[in-house]
Structure formats: C-alpha cells, structure tokens
Design brief:
CATH architecture: 3-Layer(aba) Sandwich
CATH superfamily: Glycogen Phosphorylase B
CATH class: Alpha Beta
Structural class: alpha/beta
Strand order of the largest sheet: 2-1-5-6-7-8
Number of strands: 8
Shape: globular
Order of helices and strands: EHEEEHEHEHEHEH
Number of domains: 1
CATH topology: Rossmann fold
Distance between the termini: 30 Å
Length: 234
Amino acid sequence: MSFPDAVRSDQQPRSTGAECSLPVLSQAGRLPLPTRIAVIGNYLPRECGIATFTTDLCNALAAEYGEGRLFAIPVNDPDSSYDYPEQVRLELTQEDIASYERAADFLNFNSNDLVCLQHEYGIYGGAAGRYILALLRKLKMPLVTTLHTVLREPDANQRIVLEEIAQLSDRMIVMSELAAQLLREVYAVPDGKIDVIPHGVPDMNFMDPNYFKDRFGTEGKSVLLTFGLLSPNK
C-alpha cells in the first residue's frame, strides 16, 4: 500500500475540537478537560520503554482526574499477545493495517474527544511505522502526539511519516529543547505547535544509594544513570 508525502487532498478536515463537549471546571482555576481520552502506544506487561511510559502516563492521569476519563490502545508485536489490564479497550496488531482502521472507527463511534499518541518508529507496522497514519487520517477529534525519537537525519520514509504526523497533530510534545529545535529546523513544524515536557520519573521514596551500591558491588564508585529500557537487543 502506498502512502502520500502529505495529507491527501480529498481528506475531510479533522475536527479542531471546538465542537467537543467539555466538562465544566471542577475546581477553581483548573482548565476544562476532555471527557474521554484515548492513549495509543505500547502498554505493560509488554517489556518496552514506551510501554512503561504509556502505562505511567495513564496511571498518573487516572490518579489525578479519575479512571473513567481514559483508556489505552496498545500495539501487539508479531506473534505476541499480552494479559492487559481493564484500562485497555482495544488492541492494534502491528503489521495488520486493517486493525488501525478499525481502531479509528472505534474512536470516532465512541465519541472520544482527545487522542494521545505515543510515537516511536519501531512500534507501528509498515515502513518507518507508517501504518499508524491510516488511523490518524480518519480521526475526527484533536490529536496530541508525544515524540520519543526526533531524528536529525531521517531517511525518506521516516521524514514522510513524521511530517504527516506533524500535520495531523494539534500539539506535539517532545522531551528536550534539542528535539524541539529539530522539529522546527528539520521538519518545519511551527513553534506554536510544540511543547517541551521533560521525561520525568515515577514518584518514589528516597533511599540511601549506598544500600544499592553494596547490593550490586559498586560501593566506592561513581554510578551514572540512564533512562529507558535496557534490553539485550540495544
């Protein structure tokens, strides 16, 4: 299946969100929130950095605003299945483009008023993950995309995919100022569409690092910390 370099000329304009029904302010000074949020991205128990990020994001939103506001749509890699929690309502099959189209129909039919996409090239099907475009093109509600990889020198397929995602998204979230700069300079994304939100970590109680240094045999040494999933294929 071929994909155009940009949004098709016969595509119906997606909703700007103005017609979405938003709840009244529940507390003074709090902005109104969408009533139904769908988060697309890998999800635990799949062992994947994006899965951990998406799950933590959903749990944080649910703790702050209530579980009834949101659900998740994860991607299953080939020949795999997972015992997902109740928060998962629908699953994408990575290399089955029809599953992406069905997901879009599901979101539109159920009157979701915001979709949050977690984007990483390798988790969606097709060249450079382009099958996700089949879903995004059909959406009739606002789209907020979090980019987990922004390449300085993308290949042709990677550029096509990211540029169209940028056109279809109402907001784009990156985790560093460098990523925001690359979006502006390499992909010509307007600055007003970009938000920088640092990656962050789960809120955990502080523990004496010497305990863990003794446990792992690194006592007396300087230890550097990186984030993301460490796995044999990296």
